[in-house]
Amino acid sequence: MPISNQTVASSEPLSILYQSADLVAINKPHGLLVHRSPIASDASEFAVQLLRDQLGQRVYPVHRLDRKTGGVLLFALSETMNSVMQQRFAEGAIEKTYLAIVRGYTPDEQVIDYPLRRDDNPDVYQDAVTRLRTVQRTEIPLAFGKHATSRYSLVELTPTTGRMHQLRKHMAHIMHPIIGDRPHGCNKQNKLFLNRFDMNTMLLHAHQLQFRDPVTSELVTITAPFQSEFSRMMTELFATSDLA
């Protein structure tokens, strides 16, 4: 079944990608909120609650992922480590890499340097920079508008700032919206995917986190495999469920 904005079912344990004495990372499903939010009253389950119950101890999310985004989500196992890791995220000391399926053929590489309005204060703009690299392109025999075929790209996105919905807004800005994104994406494309593929998941995946462990100074790389709907669309569009 495609995943909508509703919280995903928790019949199975969360997939743990990495665990140490201080940190744990999961592969967050699309549609699962990180924590309780007043703007998502329909949700009854949250990653914080599910992981706490699964591990039998308190957990602290050190960063956020949109409800619609799947992939690597990192938690601290103590208040002290939570403070340390949040500071490192704020300083840009943790490298975040995302993968997304977007409309059209994107350039081989591009730096998107485009300030974004704050969602909570539209009068304020914040610097926002995203590095884009095209991983793969495809053209499929799917009619859309006046065109007999449709073109899509798999892109790697590396934000060097951490603004709310930054990747979604930046891809919309360069006219290559992320498939399944609402409200920043293309509603006609989203409808096409719903009708053609029975797919309404946003195709944005938090692929990898890389950082130095605050205790050991060792380089930690955490990579998340695609969730099921992203894998299915990789097969449908690029004839593979894996990275190129």
From TrEMBL:
Protein name according to UniProt: Pseudouridylate synthase
Domain Pseudouridine synthase RsuA/RluA-like, first and last residues per copy: 22-173
Any one GO molecular function term: pseudouridine synthase activity
Gene3D superfamilies: Pseudouridine synthase (3.30.2350.10)
Swiss-Prot/TrEMBL keywords: Isomerase
GO biological process annotation, one example: enzyme-directed rRNA pseudouridine synthesis
Protein source organism: Spirosoma terrae
Pfam families noted in UniProt: PseudoU_synth_2 (PF00849)
